[in-house]
Design goal:
globular, mainly beta, 22-stranded antiparallel barrel, two-stranded antiparallel ribbon
């Protein structure tokens, strides 16, 4: 694989570190919205069954997800337990960027988040967060060549802090510098009057990038406390693999691995003690039919490996889109996910 192609997929699959984003789409968009064909709307109902002795408490979450004919998300409505209680609306633009989040307060919807975009960049020009009329946050991004070079953070129109970003010749982020007008000491914990402590982010974060054969490597370095995070990523037509390693003063703390192959996904986490000896581990293999988890925690259960198997029964419609998943453990149902799908 030549380096030109590697750097193309380097951007495509998000190995690059990104700037600070207050509104995270990954936490807002439901995961259970995969589909085939021309879907207009999915009504998603999630039932969690919590057993307490002989009683079953059911927690229900409902979402409506609307799609354009180009399969982009237009809007997400979230309800509390029934379709009569709408409490959150997230609206997207034509590029599937969040432009507004509305929430219910005292029976009325209000604009909790508004984002403005003037370019096709995923990062907004500004983000205004208004969850409380006495506390309004604003994030303003400044661009150069479509890259964010500065981000200012305001509370009630007063500047709280700001970040400066630098890039290399390949437009990869190489430096994130956090600055706070009240803290010139470069300390993350500062003692003030009346024995009060103020907590600040670490001031400088650096990033490095490497290509070794078919593996793309990005390194996040926090030099003040000698902390390092290394991400290795490879994607082929058959599988994808991502490995993240964390180091503290050159001590190998933990490793996380995500391996996707055909119709299965494997998640592995390892936590180490001296000389790279494994202290704890967690392993999960997910397929369409089951989820198998194995883990061992030092000092718990005589250090023996524990196993949990969750079976998944799937019902699909004529378009081969699943409309019901039933999760069970030890022959008892623990979760049900239902989808009503409307097509164009």
């Amino acid at each position: 694989m030549n380096n030109t192609y590697l750097f193309i997929i380097f951007f495509q699959f998000g190995l690059l570190f990104s700037q600070n984003t207050k509104i995270d789409k990954k936490q807002i968009i439901p995961r259970e919205i995969d589909f085939n064909g021309n879907v207009k709307k999915i009504t998603l109902k999630v039932f969690d069954l919590n057993r307490k002795e002989e009683k079953i408490d059911t927690t229900k979450a409902i979402s409506e997800i609307y799609f354009s004919k180009l399969k982009k998300i237009l809007k997400i409505n979230k309800f509390d337990k029934s379709l009569d209680n709408l409490w959150n609306i997230t609206e997207f633009d034509d590029l599937e960027r969040i432009k507004k989040i509305s929430r219910k307060n005292e029976g009325k919807m209000f604009n909790a988040v508004i984002q403005y975009f003037s370019t096709e960049n995923e990062f907004p020009d500004s983000t205004i967060i208004d969850f409380n009329e006495n506390y309004i946050e604003k994030y303003i991004n400044y661009f150069k060549n479509s890259l964010v070079i500065k981000q200012e953070h305001f509370v009630n129109d007063l500047l709280q802090d700001y970040r400066l970003y630098k890039y290399n010749e390949k437009n990869q982020l190489i430096e994130d510098l956090y600055l706070n007008p009240e803290n010139d000491s470069d300390e993350t914990v500062v003692s003030k009057a009346d024995n009060q402590l103020s907590i600040y982010p670490e001031r400088l974060t650096k990033y490095e990038y490497k290509v070794i054969k078919d593996t793309l490597i990005s390194i996040k370095i926090r030099p003040k406390y000698n902390l390092k995070e290394v991400t290795k990523k490879i994607k082929t037509k058959k599988y994808s693999l991502e490995i993240t390693e964390e180091y503290d003063n050159d001590f190998f703390k933990n490793s996380r691995l995500i391996y996707t192959y055909k119709d299965s996904t494997n998640y592995l986490s390892y936590y180490f003690k001296n000389k790279n000896e494994i202290r704890d581990y967690y392993k999960t293999t997910s397929t369409e039919k089951n989820i198998i988890s194995k883990w061992k925690t030092e000092g718990y259960g005589n250090n023996e490996e524990r196993i949990e198997i969750i079976k998944i029964d799937v019902i699909s419609d004529k378009y081969k889109n699943w409309i019901r998943r039933t999760y069970s453990k030890a022959n008892q149902t623990t979760r049900i996910i239902e989808r009503e799908i409307e097509y164009y």
